[in-house]
Amino acid sequence: MKAESSLAKLIGRCSRAVAVGDGAxxxxxxxxxxxxxxxxxxxxxxxxxxxxxxxxxxPMRYLRNIGTSGIEGQLRLLRSTVAVCGAGGLGGSVIExxxxxxxxxxxxxxxxxxxxxxxxxxxxxxxDVLRQSxxxxxxxxxxxxxxxIKVTKYSTYIDSSSVDGLLTGCDVVVDALDSxxxxxxxxxxxxxxxxxxxxxxxxxxxxxxxxxxxxxxxLAAIYGPGCDLRGVEAVTGNPSATPAAIAAWEVLEVVKxxxxxxxxxxxxxxxxDFADGSLxxxxxxxxxx
Length: 289
Hints:
This protein is an alpha/beta fold. It folds into 2 domains: 73 residues, no CATH class; 204 residues, NAD(P)-binding Rossmann-like Domain (Rossmann fold, 3-Layer(aba) Sandwich). The chain is built from 11 helices and 11 strands. An 8-stranded mixed β-sheet has the order 6-5-4-7-8-9-10-11, sandwiched between helices. β8 and β9 form a beta hairpin.
């Protein structure tokens, strides 16, 4: 549906054409102009950005997204809700990248506070936020990156009694946890709620990624049923780049899920060893019938 005609006219007046290569042009709108339109029209900045895209005008911040996602894909991103379970090494980078990509609503779940040993790898941490709530700091960071998007934060532990309520209403769930027990709980909830589950894990120079849709074999195909283990990264540690690299891969899976582009890492485990530069795609079998 097109935006209301009065707003559409204002968007048209504020937009301008820019070249995007091969002689093609797109109409764009600046951050200042889109925020001014939100005030003038008494709607949220997110609603303005959606209205712009509905009228084929691209908010300038998303211009470099359009070549891969397209205008319709960016609309889907802005209309989506993504939950990130964990706001540490993996989760902090996932949250940062999803905010820059333009996910309209981020749900951030973590009951932890930043401590000194987080500083080597957790992108949301710095010396000034030690002992502060991870979800609070992450929400503040998101607002500085992209003030248009909505953030819901839960400073709570994920368990079987709370998880369904935390994830209801989401479109995609991202695993950025360090406990296999918690991962299994989240994956089980995603199956119940019919949600895609993007798994990522790290250990030293190694990391792994896969996307699990309801009905896929998922974590049980990797770890077996009934596992109750803490992630091995608690023992092996991590160079600062390992969680950033795996988080980036998880974010791309989220983007592909929402926009319908590319091929998912599904029914297989993508395992990377940065120590020797190897990458394996390990088949896990097809979904259950």
